[in-house]
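Reply to dn_fold:

You asked what the input looked like. This is it:
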Amino acid sequence: MSDGEQIDGAWCLVWRGHDLIAQRHPENLFVYADGRITLGRYEETDLAGLERWLASGRIALTGPGPSEHPAPAPAPKWTLRHPEPLTPASFLAEVADEIARLAGRPTAADRLRAAERDYLREATEPHRVLLREAYLAVPAHLRVHALGDMDRQDRPLRILTTDIGQAVDGDGPLVTREMHQEARDYFAERDEAVRRAGEQRAVRYADEPTGAPQPPVVLHEVVHPNGRPAELGDFVLRNDYEAPVVHRGETYRTVLHGYWALSAADPADHDRIRACATAREAQDAGGRAARRADWSAVRLAVMAGLLRAKFEQHPRLAEVLLATGEAGIRYTGVSEAPFWRADGPRGGRDWMGRLLELVRAELRAGGAGA
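and this is what came back:
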């Protein structure tokens, strides 16, 4: 977070060295859309600083042991194509690409695809030269995967970027006009397959929402020591809000009263939980009581039923829920289990948020006569 704004980032693992310790240990390297690069928790730099760290040995791309100083890899050959070795230069190029991707700018792979399209549209020598330059701009250790084709790898590109009469990779076949044409045919067929897949995806995903999504509505767990505000707010959507709910002939003070009472295996525990003065007391009593044997299988349905009852029986609360529009709902806090709430980077399944979105859609559909 920077000045309240979320900056997207990506992570990788590097090996960190120290001046006083011979050994290296793994360390987290993060790169961000604004060009910031952090090592561990406290050290920060940029792309030029990362280059200096690599040159000085402050960080390395391989761990200690025999792999730290590998023998020079043979040049890639036509008959045996493996990714080229990861070097500081190609790693820097990859990091620069990752920053561009996070910031929404074209990457080397994007520029390569654009050069491919230009060359297919007009197969001239200048366009082929530009295609070669775009291919060579892809970080060297990633070129073999540039087309995303596990079988052909990047051979069509290497053929097209080799002059007629020259050997591909030095020991490969001599390139002919026919080979160039076969490579162009490969790209044309691939683009046609991509176009057909896009059409099919558009049909299958026809109901996918379009446009920028609304920011999520976050339902924080809050305490009102002087009583809840008179004006209704998002806090009424939480399960501990006191709004009597009639569910299957029984009245519960809150959704939490109903949920934990209905989880109890013993009818006496059910009645004791239902009679609790507050939602948290009901939760504590329910957590100590023996639960129904089928509870894990039915708890989602029970919670959905209680939420439907709450908002159907309290129109003003339904208005608050409908006012959230189509935004995602994140139900946070510490009192409920992570199964029910969002839990930040630690996870959480947020079933409460999903069920509130479901009930909201049902309310809207019912009001529209669906």
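The chain has a mean pLDDT of 91.
Hope that clears it up.
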